[in-house]
Design goal:
mainly beta; Thrombin, subunit H; six-stranded antiparallel sheet
Length: 74
């Protein structure tokens, strides 16, 4: 994975199946559970990651296309 130095921080990111995810959005992951979007990054290579702070598992950097995130409203 490219380093953060090669990345541009973004406040929102379009994710197929979810629409636009923004900093502060509440999400749920099948393994990590409930979390809040902290930030997103777009790397110079075109790769993207999203950092989510999970209630029980701490902060994780995920590839949004593979993360199987769902929005949560609670």
């Amino acid at each position: 994975m490219p380093s953060k130095r090669d990345a541009m921080r973004v406040e929102e990111m379009d994710v197929e199946g979810l629409g636009t995810l923004r900093t502060g959005d509440k999400v749920k992951h099948p393994m990590f559970g409930k979390g809040v979007v902290e930030e997103g990054y777009v790397f110079s290579s075109g790769e993207r990651t999203i950092r989510v702070l999970f209630d029980e598992h701490g902060s994780k950097a995920l590839v949004p296309e593979y993360a199987k995130l769902k929005r949560r409203l609670w």
